[in-house]
Amino acid sequence: MELTKEIIKQQLTDKFGDQLFDWQEPYGMLTFSAIKELNLKIMQFLFDKEDLQFRFLTDLTGIHYPDNKGAELGVVYHLHNLEKNIRIRFKVFMDINNPEVFSATALYQGANWMERETFDFYGIRFVGHPNLIRILNVDEMDYFPMRKEFPLEDQSRIDKDDEMFGRG
Amino acid sequence: MSRPVQYNNTVKFQGIPEGYMGEGFMATNLEKVVSLARKNSIWPLPFATSCCGIEFMATMASHYDLARFGSERVSFSPRQCDLLMVMGTIAKKMAPILKQVYLQMAEPRWVLAMGACASSGGIFDTYSVLQGIDQIIPVDVYVPGCPPRPEAVLDGFIKIQDLVNSEGLRRRHSDQYKELLKSYDIQ
Amino acid sequence: MSEHIILPEGSIEKQTTTLNLGPTHPATHGVFQNILEMDGERIIKSTSTVGYIHRAFEKIAERRPLYQITTLTDRLNYCSSPINNMGWHITCEKLLGVSLPKRVDYLRIIIMELARISDHLICNSIVGVDTGAYSGFLYLMQFRELIYEIYEEVCGSRLTTNMGRIGGFERNFTNAAFEKLEKFLKEYPKQLKEFENLFSRNRIFMDRTIGCGPISAERAINYGFTGPNLRAAGVDYDVRIHAPYSSYEDFDFTVPIGKTGDCYDRYLVRNEEMWQSLNIINQAYKKVQEFKGADAEVFHADVPNYYLPEKEDVYTKMEALIYHFKIVMGEVVMPAGEVYASVEGANGELGFYLVSDGGRTPYRLHFRRPCFIYYQAYPELIQGGMLSDAVITMSSLNLIAGEMDG
User: Fold this and answer.
1) In whole angstroms, what is the distance from residue B71 CA to residue C67 CA?
2) CATH 3.30.460.80 fits A5-127, yes or no
């Protein structure tokens, strides 16, 4: 049976009601947001349900909106149903002072390193992850570089000639 | 019927040092002979991290053959190599490893920084990339390019050969060299 | 694999050694570290460390306008950089809502399939080198030189190509480019056949690679494998078929599938993909030659905001001057929104997740890098195998460090 975006949206709202919000379809991909406690339950539902079967985790990444007080950090999941060829995106947001969500490693083995990368860049802690340590940056780093308040360049350089960079 | 003997008269003998030649012997400067031997048999260690490593593979392959300059055998062990060719971006996570590889090399040793990232950080002016390997080890030749063409790599290699040729036997024991190493915190 | 003596736990004779398959590799795979715990020659457990070439692409991309990010995407999977470039341009075109003329699509397909051949060439010949056969590598690198010459005719650079612009190409393909393409199409099939003869039914190669690092289809999907590694495990997922981009639906090609997902299957899948890529290039080249007259001069779509106008127009017309100024000074704003687009890279599904807030640079750009995702399975693939099998598994997975760390 054809799996359309309306069917997915219907099934999700039947199960979770108005805990899912902000339904959009930017550039053809169904997108919604959810409260952060539900992320694993939603993924489990999408994984197990007979006619939904979203068994492939395409991508898991983080995002930082410093202006949304109370919901600064977000995790974005891209899921894919390989057989019916349909993709879906959902996001959960959390407060920057308490950035904890449930880990998806129980469902998808591929989420392991993707969650470590998100932790490395944004500081989001994934509860239930087997080994949540930094993966790409040096272990001694004490800040989370992709957050918007941190600069790109290495601030400890003394050899840059400001004249040449238009800052002199 | 065998072919008639042909003599190749156009061969140029490269770099035979001047000296006194006689029947079956030649007397010359030890330094010149040692330099000649060293420069034509450099064993490089390809420390390839990223894109420049693929251009190095193209340089080693048959089209732009590096082996004709004497590096038929690339050694991957620092204890046995002469030239450390650093190819590709060195991140700050990789820098201690590069330093350790350099320390394990035996004298005389030379370093060639291939590519923009190894020379100065390249296009990556970020918190995680070391801005040039000369922050941690002394470099002899820089080959710019992103990635440099194989001809450029060969040019850099020939410059290393020129350096090897003109170095002399006592440079590694000189005070100036010791000062250089001390400025990099290398014993 | 069955005559291995199992020593009882806690016995004096049972000790494991820790071996560091460290970041400096003999064989230019890239920099990643594996710490192996071994019992004699067998691997009990392993942990991988990556990040030795982390260059912070995603943070750099938040500073650059869209057309300057192409140079970053080059350096992701640098063995096949045109595919990354075209994938990024396809993402931007999706964001901007640009549709391309067919000729541009077909030219892009020619370049992307050449890049795919170039990447699979390296992977298969390096698998050969790691099993001990160096000559296959030397034979095939000659053809990478031919492919590099074609890239040079189109964009000027060999390896990190920065090829094309948002909306098409920067210049039309010259006759020299098409001649070099014809030369490649004539000479390469013979050499590929010879390479196949050397390896595919070679008893030593088969003994080394069959059964080495297998993975089942369910585990592969769970890990997020894509590309030839997933197809060797038996799952027919190819982005070119599932979500065709750049007019792939106009072409007739098959996607090879393996069975057990071991190194031999991966080698065979990549080999067959090279033949299929040649097939696609031949079809695309014929289609390109069918464009005549004015159609044959089309090499880009009309994207005034991002594609530099012709120099004659800049000097004579006002709008062209303004567009030129805005593009060069980086003052073009992009529409707000978020888009995810993916292409079939040589290693799998290379995805770009672009979030824009209507500014000049992306708000967030995330690269879905296939190597990073499937390298997680490496400890599971080599467990219980021998050390030399671990090396071959690593090279047959086609791990590119630039893509892994990004």
Assistant:
1) 41
2) yes
